[in-house]
Specification:
By secondary structure, this protein is of the alpha/beta class. 44% of the residues lie in helices and 16% in strands. It has three domains: 216 residues, Rossmann fold, CATH 3.40.50; 90 residues, Tyrosyl-Transfer RNA Synthetase; 85 residues, RNA-binding S4 domain (Structural Genomics Hypothetical 15.5 Kd Protein In mrcA-pckA Intergenic Region, Chain A, Roll). The protein has a six-stranded mixed sheet with strand order 1-6-5-2-3-4, sandwiched between helices. Strands 9-15-14-11-12 form a five-stranded mixed sheet. The protein has a two-stranded antiparallel sheet with strand order 7-8. The longest helix has 19 residues. It is elongated, with a radius of gyration of 25 Å.
């Protein structure tokens, strides 16, 4: 088997392939061109979107050429795959802005050079299609019966599939054909929820051009307890630091369960496989591996400076070392503590809990911690408790902790 495919398998990037042996043989003959597509349905990607782009970098590192296709055209109708309801339609101006934003995010991670890695936008060939010609030239190659056999459509048939969404598979298949014609692209990669669309694209190229193209999908990543990877109390783990701060991003990886460490090291870092396994050897402190995982992923997405700051903030929160200024913080008036700040109000006002009822429950269950002048955290279990100035350290600060993992530095002013 080709070494690039072996690398993807070893690191967990292999779920289904249209013809693994044929793809391996093609790769042995020389560099191939592949693509991964992303629809700009929002202004920022989240970490789940990045799984194919880690594989993208592995393939590029093996000498192959990658295209990051932005779906400025397909996003105008929306992909029904993995959805139980129709996507919200966005205006074209918003989609164009999203394309620019997402292209910049992917570019920082991939490093486009115009030859071994570059972008394309399917708006360029989809926006002005003649519908009648498209049906005659492309639509005639598709079987409705076969389309309905794919999981994405079968699932949506139960809840309602619009005719607009039904066309999505034709458009994505046409993308593959167009990229083959323009750039000789022979491989599409993506999440396993895209399997039906990818297979349809390989079939279209074979029917129209008489050439074998290939599809490769990756598993949809979940945590060891079956939850969708990258979900936090605040929502998805976005790449945009204005939505998910680098500290919160770091903390997500620092707090993964022990059972997920090795799998995430292999998928979300570029550390050698042997080093990933070494970090997870029996008898080693798993927190060291989690810290390494968190630093590596944060460095890849936000850069070394932000990763170092997040690490320093985490050390300040969890140990006696580190830099408290790197922790998430909120500035508040000192006078609020002069007259006594109700514990439930404090946790709610700082955003550590979404509501007073949640704050009351957190306190009663022993999950609300407040530091004293010595910096030591103590649990507060009385919802009526007042936090006064005597809890502030000499710098007018105190640390709050909600549960085991969420910290906040409160900085008071006059």
């Amino acid at each position: 088997m080709n070494s690039a495919i072996e690398t993807l398998k070893a690191r967990g990037f292999f779920q289904q392939c249209t013809d693994a042996d044929g793809l391996s043989k093609l790769m042995d003959e020389g560099p191939i061109t592949f693509y991964e597509g992303t629809d700009p349905t929002g202004g920022s990607l989240h970490i789940g979107h990045m799984v194919p782009y880690f594989a993208f970098r592995h393939l590029r590192g093996a000498g192959h050429k990658g295209i990051a296709l932005l779906g400025g055209g397909t996003a105008r109708i929306g992909d029904p795959s993995g959805r139980d309801e129709t996507r919200k339609m966005l205006d074209y101006e918003t989609l164009d802005r999203n394309v620019d934003s997402i292209t910049a995010q992917i570019g920082r991670f991939v490093g486009f050079d115009g030859s071994s890695a570059f972008t394309a936008n399917n708006k360029d060939w989809l926006a002005n299609l003649n519908y009648i010609d498209f049906l005659r030239d492309i639509g005639r190659h598709f079987s409705v019966n076969r389309m309905l056999s794919f999981e994405a459509y079968k699932t949506r048939m139960e809840t309602g599939l619009s005719f607009v969404e039904f066309n999505y598979q034709l458009l994505q298949s046409f993308d593959f054909l167009e990229l083959y014609r323009r750039h000789g692209c022979r491989l599409q990669i993506g999440g396993d929820d895209q399997w039906g669309n990818i297979v349809a694209g390989t079939d279209l190229i074979r029917r129209v051009e008489g050439v074998e193209a290939f599809g490769l999908t990756f598993p949809l990543v979940t945590t060891s307890d079956g939850k969708k990877m990258g979900k936090t109390l605040k929502g998805a783990l976005f790449l945009d630091s204005a939505i998910t701060t680098p500290y919160d991003f770091f903390q997500y990886w620092r707090n993964v369960t022990d059972a997920d460490i090795l799998r995430f090291l292999l998928m979300f870092t570029f550390l050698p496989v042997d080093e990933c396994k070494s970090l997870c050897l029996s008898g080693k402190n798993p927190n060291e591996a989690k810290e390494r995982l968190a630093w590596e992923v944060t460095c890849l997405i936000h850069g070394k400076e932000e990763a170092d700051k997040a690490l320093a903030g985490a050390k300040a929160a969890f140990t006696s070392g580190g830099d408290k200024s790197a922790m998430p913080n909120k500035e508040m008036s000192r006078s609020l503590f002069g007259r006594g700040y109700n514990i439930v109000d404090l946790f709610c006002d700082t955003g550590l809990v979404p509501s007073k009822s949640e704050g009351r429950r957190l306190v009663q269950q022993g999950g609300a911690f407040v530091s004293g002048k010595d910096g030591e955290l103590s649990a507060i279990t009385d919802p009526a408790a007042l936090i006064g100035e005597d809890s502030l350290n000499t710098d007018g600060e105190l640390i709050l902790r909600a549960g085991k993992k969420r910290y906040l530095l409160v900085v008071t002013n006059a």
